Amino acid sequence: MLTNGGPKFVGNLSPDDVTLVLTPETDTVTAGLTIREIDPTSLLKLLGNVLNVKATQYEFGYGGSDPADYLDDNTFSASANPEGTVTEWRWVIFKHTTPVDVEGRFVSGSPALPNGLCTDCDFIKYGTWGAALTSQQNPNQSQTLGGWWVAGDITTASQLDQLANTHVGIANYAGKAVGDVFSKSGGTWTQSIETGDMTMSWDFADRKGQLNINNFDGRNFGGEMCGKSSCLKGNNHFAGSLRQTDGLGGANRLNGAAAGSFVNKGSIPAGGVIGNFGVGNNNWKASGIWGGARP
Asked: What integer pLDDT is reported at residue 80 of this predicted model?
């Protein structure tokens, strides 16, 4: 999100921050969402200190007599939209029991990646979301939120333990990254959508590996990821710091962090991997998602 003061990032730091329930039998959509304002260069610190991060909690639903439009798990809205576009919703949100009107979107896929995040990756879902929040107290002022989402069938900790004792103890993944870039020139910030190449190697026995994102708006960055309990709670997730890897150093060096999870490819445990990242310096910042699959 681009504001008068520069880029402002909001995000979720845990899978528990988002709940979404689609009920085609009753034609309803309900959800809960916890949004935290984050700096992409300090994401790793926040991951280990979630309780001290200022968060805003919302409960989503639809109000009035308008029914929810439900076509399938990828195409729905929370109430009838005047334009009739089912990828748009109009919800009533309750923030601390105060109603807030919302207009927004939830879109699968992205024109930026017409072939998806990786080859044969239908088991990984991703896309964009956006919302404009207007309170009843200030109906002429709205707050715009937006970003990227990625989802899959998260591999359990017990499944990862089993992989550590098999021939798949060490695995390599390849895919794509996509996100929003904010660049500053002459005191003015501009926003664009960029993509890059993602690779990751992982040792299931040691619960650590290396994540690299290259050719992302002409920049390369990466770092070691750790999935041990001493690094991150949950036992089936991982996180780590990111550093610029294309030789540029000094004050303009990119710093940031990434977090992710393994996802099952049908009956294949940890057949894929997904995550989010944030990286930047004083004049260039990026935040987005990545995903890949084992060959």
From this structure: 34
